[in-house]
């Protein structure tokens, strides 16, 4: 916050690079490979980066490491799938995409607030345990419930809205929708943490009793921050559902939940941007695990990377970069906290 | 009536298994504030290692096959726990979140390597003849003997832990460590050694549960997540770091699961989590836990 100018310049440069990325890829790669990189690596990284950003937002400004963020994202995806016209099987149906997406985001915001309310009296490691237990509870419920969620099979054929006469499946429609959403949400989060609400939130992180003594309702602020994170995660969940053309319990299972944690920790829990750094690394590893180690051993590979980062740099990759930059400039990075 | 009693007995035998798993988790947490997210992975590793020892012996029809598997599983898990504490967790004592992340990383790698070595096919131990088959239980009828033995093992574990904590010098040190680690160290006790002992014990209990649990139900990929979740819910409900609390939590969750499945199968999972949420709302430290520091 003390140096807003370089941060904003950096963000704008990164955004410009991402806007131009599909064209740059087309310039250096054959068309099909360029499209693969655009949608399956960059686009997917943006989508999961959005979900992970809901976690890095909570962790950075509230000090809450919640493992329920993928679950909240999944609730948004499931809500869209349940209400939208054309999904297979039809659970409720009859809604157009704009209405279904609005319902999905509302459901994610409410369930985010609910997670916050349940975990409101706990913190640190207890919060991690409770949110993990909640996430697994929702997963097991959705997996076994046929009436509302079509159980193990999930709901298919959620193709996403048409835009400019093109299907959502179109590489560039998907990519620029994801990029636009990610950029707006990122700006929203950075704006929010500078607002009075964000300042109170950071005050609660550093000293809840002092903030309470100033007359602020600590519990309410905590729940509100979980609701905001729920909305952000919900946006990612809706995009992920369109990307996968549907949703199944696997997308909110233990593996998916832990993947969001891996993305956030690899990127770094000290700034919301870490989510996107981690998501890009994750997507690249996920795609090229076969050539790096063994086709089926992606989990070992990403597990080792994750473990190495936790052991070497608790700030994640972006924290590592920042520390090296700090060393080069012979200054101690400000605001570096270990949790 | 008979059905109701069967459901209750099912709940209690399940609770016995849950208690064995969660007691190790709770013990480690109680002394070291380490949330061992690899607890489920230790359960799974012990199951597979035990099975690798058990299978060739069982094929040769040796009576001690199951016992050898049990011993191998428990010892392997205990040693794995020891190594984990020594190599990864000991030097970052106090950084609770980082420890949890490290154990998550380890459990991802372990689960994937187990899949690579043992494949995805479920396996199951066969209990030795002495505790195989079924017994007659008043009011219920014939009931699998092994599941009754499971209750016996849980009782032995519970009483053993109580005696260890309340009647031995090591127990004294552990209880003192729970209250004030620094003071204990200042008294000349080598706390890291006590920590290693506790970690080995807790991991060994996960191993015991791994073999016992894989005799009563299949041993398969994904069980690590299931039993980690069970451990979490049981200690959240019962109170962290308390043996009595773990027992109460295990009985409550075991019964809720079986009763829920009997009454409303599709929604039985919800019951477990309703219990957890209600306990959290009324007593965040768990039913038997002490107030959070």
Keywords:
heterodimer, A: 339 residues, mainly alpha, ABC transporter involved in vitamin B12 uptake, BtuC, two-stranded antiparallel ribbon, 14 helices, 2 strands, globular, disordered C terminus, B: 293 residues, two-stranded antiparallel sheet, 74% helix
Describe the protein's architecture and organization.
The complex is a heterodimer of chains A (339) and B (293). Chain A has 339 residues and is mainly alpha-helical. Helix content of chain A is 73%, strand content 1%. Chain A has one domain: ABC transporter involved in vitamin B12 uptake, BtuC (Orthogonal Bundle), CATH 1.10.3470. Chain A has helices at residues 4-28, 31-62, 69-83, 97-118, 124-144, 146-149, 171-194, 196-206, 208-213, 218-243, 254-267, 274-292, 298-312, 316-328; strands at residues 155-156, 246-247. In chain A, strands 1-2 form a two-stranded antiparallel ribbon. Residues 335-339 of chain A have low confidence and may be disordered. The model of chain B has no long low-confidence stretch (mean pLDDT 90). Chain B is an all-alpha fold. The longest helix of chain B has 31 residues, at 2-32. The relative contact order of chain B is 0.20. Chain B is globular and about 55 Å long. Chain B contains 11 helices and 2 strands; from the N terminus they run ααααββααααααα. Chain B has helices at 2-32, 39-59, 65-89, 96-118, 145-167, 169-179, 181-186, 191-216, 223-238, 243-263, 268-282; strands at 134-137, 141-144. Classes of the chains: A mainly alpha (339), B mainly alpha (293). The interface between A and B is large, with 41 and 36 residues. Chain B: The chain crosses the membrane at residues 6-29, 41-58, 64-88, 145-165, 191-215, 227-255, 262-282.
Shape of chain A: globular
State the end-to-end CA separation of chain A: 20 Å
- The biggest beta sheet of chain B, please? 2 strands, antiparallel
Order of helices and strands of chain A: HHHHHHEHHHHEHHHH
Series of H and E elements of chain B: HHHHEEHHHHHHH
Family (chain B): Belongs to the binding-protein-dependent transport system permease family. LivHM subfamily.
Subcellular location (chain B): Cell membrane
Organism (chain B): Stella humosa
Membrane topology (chain B): Multi-pass membrane protein
